[in-house]
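thread from #wetlab-drylab

HS: before we spend reagent money on co-crystallization trials with magnesium ion, can we at least see a predicted complex? here's what I'd submit
DV: go for it
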Amino acid sequence: MALKKEELLEAYRRMRTIREFEENIHRENTTGEIPGFLHLYCGQEANAVAVCMQLDDTDYIASNHRGHGHCLAKGADVKGMMLELYGKEDGLCHGRGGSMHIADVSRGILGANGIVGAGAPLATGAALTAKTLGTGGVAVSFQGDGASNEGYVFEAINMAVMWQLPMIFYFENNGYGEFTGHDYVVGSKDIAGRAAAFGLPAVRVDGTDFFEVYEAFGEALKRARAGKGPSVIEAQAVRFYGHFEGDPQAYRSTEELESVREHKDCLKILRQKLIKGKKATTAELDTIDQEAVELINACREAAKAAAFPDPATLMNNTYVSY
Ligand SMILES: Cc1ncc(C[n+]2csc(CCOP(=O)(O)OP(=O)(O)O)c2C)c(N)n1
Ligand SMILES: [Mg+2]
């Protein structure tokens, strides 16, 4: 893989920025200033970043309820995201969307989505648009292991195969759908294997390894851009926090929670690889860490100080007329 030093540092910066954004929300949520449900992406950053840094604004992503990382990785404005979470008028969606409905169509971000698996048919529609209009763009849907049991996800995969669409279905298998273990509900225990039966390439990767994801997604992207049709990627990922903020996680042992932070932290793993491979120095990475902290602190203070929407404008920016 021929990633330049600047690209590697940029990948680390994006992953670190997402991590800092999420850790900050985890701390701040206790103040009661962030309305609505929050599902943190902490631990899964390598996936969003290794995928989205290979896309541009003509490519689409459809995200899910755990969508902060996907949107930030695809280029959503960090301050706009933070303000949106706080429900402020200057947020990315004028405070009407919040965590689970963040979108920025100008950057190809079709939105976070509270309906499990709904991103797959949405992005498939975007892939059909790209193919029909000949834009050269591709579409990617991010969904979890739980979404792999939704019928419309498989309908979308079948349609993408039949129409040979420039579409990539990216499953982040973090071992849990809400509070239920993946092994308990996924019959074959093998999402990629099950998807392959639809007649498309489907691979499983280690979602804690930025490089493995980058490579596998790069292959799928090459196929999609060359008009060779869709692919499925199943990434083995880990979730650091509960399903949602406030989930006591009685179904996970303390040992498991400590172990994933210790041994399966994608950010730590990337950091070690960059240093070992002499791609970056500790000082360079420390500087990026510090810059991410400063950026997120500034965004948080701006979000706290920003104005709420005027109640008289409640229905503005809410519905689209066609
Ligand atoms: C269609 C639908 N069914 C059920 C729910 C309730 N629900 C919200 S998140 C979730 C679990 C999703 O698990 P997974 O796809 O693995 O994503 P993860 O939360 O692990 O990122 C469920 C069942 C929902 N929002 N939509
Ligand atoms: Mg899951």
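DV: Residues 144-146, 174, 176-177 surround magnesium ion (ligand 2) (CB under 6 Å).
HS: ok that's useful, forwarding to the group
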